Amino acid sequence: MVNPFVRIRKSIANLPDKKKYIEVITASLSIPVLLSVVLVNYLNIQDKRSGGTPTPIVTQAPQIITIIKEPVERNDTPAPTSATSPTPTQKDECIKEIGPISINSPEENESVSGNPLEIDIKYDQGDYCSVVWSYRINKGNWSDYIDDDIVIYNMDSGGKTLDLRVKSIVSNANETLTRTFMYQNTGSEPTPTLSPSPTGTE
Fold this sequence. Notes:
Layout: H1 4-14, H2 18-50, E1 101-105, E2 111-113, E3 117-123, E4 131-137, E5 150-152, E6 158-168, E7 174-184
Parallel strand pairs: 2-7
Antiparallel strand pairs: 1-3, 3-5, 4-6, 6-7
C-alpha cells in the first residue's frame, strides 16, 4: 500500500504549474484564520460598547422579624410600708454639760476703774449646749439670768467679790465662778431702767 503523503507529493510534482496551485491552497487555508480574527475583533468591539456583560446582582429579600411582647401585669397597689422603717436621721444633740467658761476681766486681784463697770464673760460653746448666768456682788442679791457680758452702773468703790452662777438651758448642770478685784468709781452715770443691776457693799 502506497503512503498517502507520498501520493500527494507525487501528484503535486506532476502538476504543470506548481506555483499557481500552491498559492490557491495557501489562500484557501488563510481564509478561516482571517474570519476568526475578524470575529474576535467584532466581539471585543461589542463588549466595549455595551460596557461588558453586567454580572446579575442577586438581592436577598429582607427578612421580617416579628417581636411579640407579652402583656405585663401592672400592680398599682402601693407596697405596704414596713412598721420598722428607719426614721430620718436627727441632728446631733449638743453636749448637755457646761463647756469651758471663764471671767476674762477683771482679772483676779486687779484694780479697775470707770463707770459703768464691764465684766467680760468668755464661753467656748463648741458642741456644748447654751448656758446662761447670774451674778452677785459681795454676797448681795442674785441678778436675773443673761447670756451677755455684765455691765454694772454706779457701784461703790472698794474691794469686790463677784460670784458668777452658770447653768445649762437644757439640763440641771450648773457651776459657780468667783473673782475678787478692787474697784474705783470715777463718777456717777444714770442707771438704765431696763436692766437694773444688783449692788453690794462691803
